[in-house]
Amino acid sequence: MPNPIRRPPRVAAPWLRTRLRAAPGAALALAVLVAVTACLAAAFPRALGRYEDAALRHTVDKAPRNWSSVQLSAPEPYATLPQAERERLLTAEVLAQQYARVRALPRAPLTTDPGQSTYGVRTKVDLETADPWLPRPSELPARMSLVAQAGLAEHARLRGGRLPHLSGPVTARTAEVEGAVTAATARTLHIEVGSVIHVPALDRGWFAVRITGIVEPLDRDDAYWSYDPLLHEPLLVKLPPGGPDSPSYWLGALLLPPEAGPALLGTTGNPYPFWRLTPRQDALHHQDLDRLRSAVGSLVSGPDLRTIRGFTSPYTDANTKLDRVLGSYDRLQSAISPLIAVAVFGTGTVVVVVLMMAGGLAADRRRTELALLRARGASLSGLTVRLLAETAVVAVPAGALGLAAALLVLPDARALPAALAALAVTVLACVALPLRAAAAHRVVRLHEARQDVTSVRPSRRRTVAELTLVVIAAGAVEALRRQGTSGDQLVSAAPVLVGVIAALVLVRLYPLPLRGLARPAGRLRGFVAHLSLARAGRTSASAVLPLLALLTALTTAAFGGSVLAGVDQARDRAALLEVGADARIESITYPLATGLADRVGNVSGVRNVTAVSVDYQGRPGNGRHSVPVAGVDPARYADLARETRLGAFPAGELAGGGRGEALPALASQAVAERYGRAPFEVALADGSTVTVRITLVRAVTPAVPSENFLVVDRAGLATEAARPTALLVSGEHADGDALRRAAGSAVFVRVRAAERARYADSPLQSGTERLYAAAVAAGAGYAVLALMLALLRTAPERGALLARLRTMGLTRAQGRRLLVLESLPQAALAALGGVLTGWAAIRLLSPGLDLTVIALPASSSTPSRAELHTDSLSLTVPALAVIAVTVGVAAVQAWWSGRRGTVRELRVGDGR
Question: Greater confidence, 95 or 850?
Fold first, then answer.
């Protein structure tokens, strides 16, 4: 008996399980594509964020501590207050309580570093000492600054004695306190443990400081010591006007315990309290820049300062240049971000095209299946939803896996931008197949129509869309040319838009010459050339997507490669301007030793050595302006200038004049405009004079890295002035260490390669280069993938064609030639179009791009400007790679089709 409760089994298998089992290879390929793309998309903002954070911290770290720290100071307590109240305001207990409230006041993200922040009391006026045993270079007594700063034990180690401390209460009447000095101060000023230093007191003779310890800073770069370098090293101060013969005296610092603050009221130093805050560098993040600048502004001249004045003094003031430091980083980041956006738009466009092509390939592979379902009554919305679910089952886990990989590989960065980028990739991968299928099957068809350009004519909507893109691209390019990279994101997309327009134009135009060549090819013996040209001229109407991917990738590669090449050229040029040759050996004070040029010439890698004498204190005319004067050997120096391309000139025009005549001189533009072409005298540092006449004008010269210079024949100078002070060394492979050993320690040795390495000053600059290189590599990889997808899309048709032709006598060699010749026009079109598009984009956009901000640090004084120029390798190598890949794939397909049986190939081709 049948069981009435039991339901009959379901016959239909679930859609998702059936489709995934039917094509596991396609599902796996989609998963890999989505995972890799999502990982790259998520990694980019995290890498950029890490570079930006590192650059911000680097900028703050490289700034002087008195710029990056915030010091709040109050004037000396009012003289109208009772003496006990004045003393109480400078006690360590009161200052510590105020310091705790000051530290807690700054708003996030301005987080202070307790290890480098401090407080204390110091004298405003430097005090003359009365001790004759202290050094007196100009018979002037040494002066001391008294500093009672908290935290000495935590920031110094003892070199001798013990740390100072006070055993009892301290008042303004205290006549003597204990103190310490650093080892550098003790060594320079001859101070020992037990020394007593006397400074003037207010109502008695002297205030004494007994030295009980000599300390060594744990870290001289710490803000505790570097905010005021006087704390760890004395200064030799020259009185006005500050010349070499001006009187001078030593100025040092005596380190007192923080409890000694009230005792300073008894001196004539006008003591004042201070509270110093240093930001924590590991808490600085680029995304908090605006809030950070707001917090600094509030602390310096806003509500926070008003609050601090409420519990310290109404006249408390803040001193910092942290806002300037943050502004310098902001200018660097603002100048670099549009250049990064150019690479992002280019690579992002190629990725979008590849994902769309992957969906299109899947839709074409299942065209017959989907058409049959529509013919049997499947609704368009239902079919779209099923395809979306089928794709999402594969793409969503793959996208999550790619995001997780990016988060693991690049920790300590913002997760939200990475998640949004991975989500965008996943969503695009999910909707590519459903949308392509919905567009292809919105109308139920019994038979598929031809899809080549002979039957599918461009519609009016497509024409309007293409014209709209032309107008947008032209406007973006013109905007970039006018305003540089300071415009909006549309400006950064200008290179991509140029590639888009080129793709649309080339797809419309390129079948015309192929059809014209097909007729004369038909008269040739054999049918391979005629048939390949005919098939290439009837390419698919959907070929715009792979061509767009290739052109965009080639344009981005050319643009990115030209950016990197421009940066390299600018750094090479700047290093060459700074050094003057491949290496420079120079003595600023004294002439070089006799025989040094011969020793340097024997160093491995040195090709040539040019000796010059440079007087940086030459005073032409009335002597109001100093101009560097270089004495050279005209012949050797002309060869060096020609080799380095730094102001080349004919050697004969610099040869010395006769007796009593003015020496011919090579001058900079500024010097020539100031002194003219008439003879004039130049006073040199050794006391001699020389009469020169400017005959040559150049912008730069190897001997002097300056915009002002005079170059004369060394034979016309006095004996002392003609002695070489610098050697300009030629030789790209000269060993810097060997040069230093040969030159000795008494001279400065500068190597061009080492100078060039210093120009990547900020992590954001070096990071931008790496991101550009990664974007170019990723774009090239996805362009190759787009090319492979385009060839895979037509592979069944080509395979079936070869099989049919083999039944009519086509040989394997002819089959290979047919596939290669058929695919070669499209590859050549993409390569040629990519070269032309990249060249045009660079030429059009170069006036609006300044690469100096990437190539050179902001502190560089080199008058070099990095400009965007076309790089031949970046233009030609990717284009040739496209042709090579296309030909290789066509040859492999012909070989593989030959291995498969003709009957099997016909069945597979017809079935698809």
Answer: 95
